[in-house]
């Protein structure tokens, strides 16, 4: 497999070969579409500065994708696939220029049936959600960017989100039913993967074929209520989150716990969260509402905000302050802040959370997202870090790992150095088949650099 | 509180006071309605032999229940409330005669709204399920007796069932929203309990007021598929069950695992389960179907039976062979067999299951029901026991307890000696208020015997 693609191309000839397909050559627009939200990381910001594609191609149909793939293969041009570019790992930033393949025009939803949707990769999560709700369903999980993010981008680069408290992570068996990808070969093919075979492409950062269509399971659309509960003590807030997570009779889609002063960065919500208090942001089914006060009281919490199911869509949307939107809102006030991504060990007494909370104090502000992992509710975390130096940031991450906290390092664009640690051999094998020239997002896989 | 009720009553006068309410005095019918399925236990069979009520009263409305309660209070007559009498703990058998209060005529369903149903105590679970499905919902959990069992009886005496793999147990916060009970006093009252207050009556075996109406949360009605998988090795079957339970992306409502020779007792299913194989009975959402083969293969299982969602209601219903219907079917072939009720400790490697399986061999045949307890999937079990003596049965239960297995002894009619161990002080307090003369199901609570 070629790892450093040939890249001496006459772009006029190249574009001419793409006749009929939308192409953007305007430098400012190309630069914009070569970006994602890796800027949350000062490390990636430095490493990826100035990296841009040569042109943007925006296919609207499978036939057009096949056409683009053939032309890219012919001219050995690197291809960086993107959806809305809401990711945070630089996976939409091309290291070696080439084509930015913007999938956001592929917006068909062929069908939504009882509990399953078939859709093209460029469909926005919010659009699918709205359509599915007509028949009583909704998406199982969503990133905080769900108004703009596409399903293809979410599957390629996401791990979970709002809904993971019930359905686990995107890569868990059952959360993705089928994928259709286009290969980048002299004669590109369309390959449909079903069942466990989807794992060959799932969460592979767009290096394993161009995802053009997906089949995903849906969740029942409950009437949801959004709630803020405040606490005087952080660990009590965290334990409340764990207890609600463990309550099998309570249907929920979000349990987020913020240590003070994180909520103070949410300007729109300051009236509901007194200074120096810690907060839990919850999305629960309406049927749980009468049961919450008892649980809140057990943990000395105070319900300060409640938006009923009928008012969904009005006013603020709590989900948009959670997951990595927490980092977004915080950085819009203080851009020197960065973040971690971590998964605490299975321990319902939350001892490691408590240790880290006290050990780092204000330098690492605790932001817990409770999710289900392998059948058990545990806290994931996107802690906010008051950044000083790269060395200190690495030290913080190493300390977590030494204490049993799994770190999915968001300060690297190398896939193996992030959450994956090691490329799945099946994925590598599949990559060799669908991308024989190594054109897809080159430079992001360590395993291919040493060949 | 009086614990041995006064019982010198002129039944003609008594019945005359019940004018307008349906009363059964025919001895054969009264004897029949004084029974439940405690006969699964040779101990209870002996202890409760010959225990019958004096008359059966069958109220159809709240007003009639109030009338009955007033008359019972006036004459200090014991009241044993029953639904369909499908329980197994003798809780429908009166120790001191009196009135059998049959609630099965109270069948109104005032409303079913998004995710919640309000219904009278005598509604059969299958009836509610059918009605709820019209609007896309169904009951969250059901006993294997769900075709005949009533919701009032299930809440009063049940612990969980088909569906508990997702929603936990009936007593878990969130699985019961409201209860309306009638007190047995000189001037009976109607009391509505909501939120956490429902726990004053939930799972209290009909001793804490006459449950007349309930509000319960519903579950989304997925298209369900029924499946049998067979295995050559029992522990592999058990580990498969645990793995499916842990798979957060797979929506399921039943994971039952039977050790050989249990499936050989299911005459209707013998063609699907070869001799000497162990079997998993599953009910999973249709959207999981393509993902199951991969998981089955990992555990060397063999899919031998599959009933699609469209065929639900046709042919055999796998759920009817699980939970305590396993015991029913087995005893219909070999009435000398009895059973245990237990909950294994949280341990995803299933070491205690393995130990018990080998330790007792064929004497205690393993029947696992995976359920969620406090946010984690663990195996409950209703092991089948080749009964020899009461002493040996007790020894078997003590051995389990000594090894960390929780036993809800189904061979006693004393509430505290079963699953509860100790009466909840809140429940006792509530009992004193709603049943000041101690007329409800007297003799079943140890805490009241010593007063």
From TrEMBL, chains A, B:
Pfam family, one: FAD_binding_4
The FAD-binding PCMH-type domain, residue ranges: 48-221
Coiled coil: none
PROSITE patterns: FAD_PCMH
Gene3D superfamilies named in the record: 3.30.465.10
Protein name: FAD-binding oxidoreductase
């Amino acid at each position: 497999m070629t790892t450093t693609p040939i890249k001496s191309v006459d772009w006029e000839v190249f574009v001419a070969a793409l006749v009929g397909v939308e192409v953007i050559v305007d430098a400012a627009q190309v630069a914009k579409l070569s970006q994602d939200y890796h800027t949350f990381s000062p490390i990636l910001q430095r490493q990826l500065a100035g990296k841009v594609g040569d042109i943007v191609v925006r296919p609207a149909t499978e036939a057009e994708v096949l056409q683009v793939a053939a032309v890219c293969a012919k001219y050995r041009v690197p291809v960086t696939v993107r959806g809305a570019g809401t990711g945070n790992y630089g996976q939409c930033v091309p290291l070696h220029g080439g084509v930015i393949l913007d999938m956001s025009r592929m917006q068909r939803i062929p069908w939504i049936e009882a509990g399953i949707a078939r859709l093209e990769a460029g469909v926005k999560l919010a659009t699918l959600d709205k359509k599915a709700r007509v028949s009583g369903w909704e998406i199982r999980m969503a990133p905080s960017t769900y108004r703009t993010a596409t399903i293809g981008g979410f599957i390629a680069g996401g791990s979970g989100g709002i809904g993971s408290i019930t359905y686990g992570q995107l890569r868990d068996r059952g959360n993705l039913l089928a994928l259709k990808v286009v290969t980048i070969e002299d004669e590109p093919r369309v390959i449909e993967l079903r069942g466990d075979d989807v794992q060959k492409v799932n969460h592979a950062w767009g290096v394993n074929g161009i995802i053009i269509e997906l089949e995903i399971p849906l969740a029942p659309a409950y009437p949801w209520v959004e709630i803020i509960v405040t606490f005087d003590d952080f660990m009590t807030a965290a334990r409340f989150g764990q207890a609600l997570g463990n309550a099998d009779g309570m249907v929920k889609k979000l349990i987020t716990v913020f240590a003070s002063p994180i909520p103070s960065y949410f300007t729109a919500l300051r009236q509901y969260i007194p200074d120096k208090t810690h907060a839990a942001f919850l999305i629960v089914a309406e049927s749980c509402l009468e049961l919450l006060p008892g649980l809140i009281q057990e943990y000395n919490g105070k319900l300060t905000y409640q938006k009923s199911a009928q008012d969904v869509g009005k006013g603020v949307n709590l989900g948009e302050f959670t997951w990595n939107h927490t980092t977004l809102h915080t950085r819009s006030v203080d851009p020197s802040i960065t973040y971690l991504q971590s998964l605490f060990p299975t321990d319902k007494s939350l001892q490691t959370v408590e240790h880290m909370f006290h050990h780092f104090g204000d330098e690492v502000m605790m932001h817990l997202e409770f999710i289900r992992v392998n059948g058990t509710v545990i806290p994931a975390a996107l802690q906010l870090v008051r950044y000083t130096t790269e060395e200190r940031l690495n030290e913080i991450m190493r300390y977590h790992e030494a204490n049993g906290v799994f770190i999915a390092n968001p300060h690297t664009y190398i896939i193996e150095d992030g959450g994956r640690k090691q490329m799945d051999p099946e994925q590598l094998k599949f990559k060799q088949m669908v991308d024989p020239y190594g054109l897809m997002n080159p430079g992001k896989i360590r395993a291919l650099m040493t060949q």
